[in-house]
Design a protein that fits this description.
Elements: H1 4-9, H2 13-17, H3 21-33, E1 41-43, H4 73-92, H5 102-107, E2 113-115, H6 128-138, E3 143-147, H7 154-162, E4 167-171, H8 177-184, H9 190-207, E5 212-216, H10 227-231
């Protein structure tokens, strides 16, 4: 469970660096006592299908052997409505000084919401955009998804932004074809990924939505020299 308020309350290093075993256990118990009893961030993996072989992903590297499935839509709706009920409780107590501070709602996009991704690639799910539309019409929590931009056609980019999804996260783990395919595998195409991002930006401009398009590069160590160029 992600708990960003807890991150701001404690210094994890005191427990990691404590050499006395008994004291270390006591410190971890003290830290856990501060944790919220409900999740701040929920996650639904609607599919575990993915065409890519990213080096840091157990799905892409072949370690994961689950059979490939897309989630039933009725099950998806049932889960989402349960999350909605818990979300309403959390929002109802957001001014409780112990658990919530209003400034975090304004300052951190990571604070709340449903993540529609895990090990699968959401756009491999034929119902993915339909799910986003249903969520925005039936639930009040923010909706986020990490997608592979190569899978975006002009039409799907437009429909995804049109769904008013709150945040689209894209891992563009490279600055050219070579560095990108090294990180994301032989089926990844840097040019297609860039074109997908441009399609999203064009759709956002035309539709005038507030969807956040968040492009990131994961630091693999060997690509550290590319980070400054990527930021520019």
């Amino acid at each position: 469970m992600l708990d960003f308020l807890l991150e701001n309350q404690i210094d994890w290093r005191i427990a990691y660096l404590e050499k006395d075993a008994t004291r270390r256990v006591d410190l971890w118990e003290e830290i856990e006592s501060l944790r919220s009893t409900t999740p701040f961030v929920d996650q639904i993996e609607t599919t575990n299908a993915c065409p890519f072989t990213c080096k840091l992903c157990p799905r892409g590297s072949g370690l994961m052997t689950r059979s490939i499935h897309h989630m039933d839509f009725e099950l998806f709706k049932n889960l989402s409505l349960q999350i909605e009920s818990h979300f309403q409780v959390r929002i109802g107590t957001m001014y409780d000084e112990k658990n919530f501070e209003e400034k975090y709602l304004r300052e951190s996009i990571e604070m709340f919401g449903l993540r529609l991704h895990h090990f699968g690639s959401p756009l491999s799910d034929p119902d993915f955009i339909r799910r986003c539309v249903w969520l925005k019409n039936n639930c009040s929590f923010p909706v986020h998804a990490s997608i592979s931009a190569e899978q975006l056609s002009q039409d799907s980019a437009y429909r995804l932004v049109e769904s008013e999804i709150d945040r689209i996260l894209i891992a563009l783990d490279g600055i050219d074809e070579e560095t990108y395919s090294t990180a994301r595998g032989k089926y990844a195409t840097y040019e297609k990924a860039c074109n997908g991002i441009l399609r999203l930006l064009d759709a956002k401009k035309r539709l005038k939505t507030e969807t956040l398009i968040d492009v990131q590069l994961i630091d693999f160590g060997q690509n550290r020299s590319d980070i400054e160029y990527f930021q520019k």
